[in-house]
Design a protein that fits this description.
about 110 residues; alpha+beta; about 20% helix
C-alpha cells in the first residue's frame, strides 16, 4: 500500500486544518476555586493549566493528551514522545507558543483599551 503524504502548508492555506490533541506531562494537580481538578502541565517547556476532570486516574508525572485545554486521555511516556515528535515534524505546535505582547497593535500606539 502506498503512503499518503500531506503538505501541511497547503492544508493550512486551504483552511482544512483539524485540531489535534497535544501530549503534556502533569507537573502539579490542584482544584480551582470552583472545585474543578486542574493540572499544571508541561508541553515541551511551555507550562499551561489543563482541566483534568475527564481523566480522574491521572497523577503527577503522568502524560496526558490535551485538546483545547482538556486532558482527554492518559498515555505512556513513549507514546507522548512519538506524538510530540510527529506534531513537531508537521509544524503543528504553534498554538503552544506564548504570544509576543510587544507585537500587539495596542503596544505600538500606547492604547490600552
Amino acid at each position: 500500500m502506498g503512503k499518503i503524504l500531506l503538505d501541511c502548508d497547503l492544508i493550512q492555506q486551504e483552511s482544512l486544518c483539524m485540531c489535534l490533541a497535544i501530549p503534556g506531562k502533569v507537573l502539579e494537580i490542584q482544584q480551582d476555586p470552583q472545585g474543578v481538578r486542574m493540572g499544571k502541565t508541561n508541553f515541551g517547556g511551555i507550562v499551561k493549566q489543563v482541566c483534568l476532570e475527564y481523566t480522574p486516574e491521572v497523577q503527577c508525572g503522568d502524560y496526558v493528551l490535551v485538546h483545547v485545554g482538556f486532558a482527554l486521555s492518559k498515555v505512556d511516556e513513549d507514546e507522548a514522545e512519538r506524538t510530540y515528535k510527529a506534531l513537531e515534524d508537521m509544524r503543528q505546535l504553534g498554538e503552544l507558543e506564548a504570544p509576543d505582547l510587544n507585537s500587539s497593535p495596542f503596544a505600538a500606539n500606547g492604547d490600552s483599551s
